[in-house]
Write the structure tokens for this entry.
Amino acid sequence: MHNPGNTTAFVGECPCFGLRTASYNAAMTNAVADLSSDLEAGLRALGLDAALAPPLLAYLALLLRWNQAYNLTAIRDPREMLTKHLLDSLAMHGAVDELAARGGALADLGTGPGLPGIPLAIAKPGLLVALVESNGKKARFLREAVRQLGLRNATVAESRIEAFDAPAAFDAITARALATLPLILDLGGHLLKPDGRLLAMKGVVPEDEIAALPPAWQVEQLLPLAVPGLAAERHLVVIGRTPR
């Protein structure tokens, strides 16, 4: 079995089967390259620079290849990944602009294959992103992706969220399809600075979850998000500590 930590796996070998798969890699490269114009259009719709397309497509190509071996995401179609992973993750970019401008720190909790953390780290080089993931295979992919993409502003923490020993270290935490709002705060609230915020990515407005927030936390903003190419509802719930 080929070691996925070896970068030659992306040249001519599949990281799972140890077989020569130059034709497979070529097919994946072509599939990703075909998405370039769609990604550029999506980036412009989000108010982002279309020049971000090449590094984002490089990340998508890595994800596609490793997903053949390790089932990092249930979505396997490259075009669907473009919309539901890359553009969906970047839809919240405006919420971290101020953090990125001052070199603030964001922890992406239960990031899986790096969503939304890696797209945000690519789009916002001033943002310091910690990718928190307990699954060993996913953490292995994250380390390789950070290295391959040259993301000096991203680090990987292979840890359960509640065991991540970085109290009050982050200006913000985020989570995408992880858990309910109260549970996210229960697991990761210790990571926030006193004035830190949870930036929770949700679909429809989670009224029941908001109602179940503990008294120490309150919703500060509820922002609708528009994801290019996706008709489903998306919202960003911004939660901070309740003033005493």
Notes: The first helix runs from residue 22 to 33.
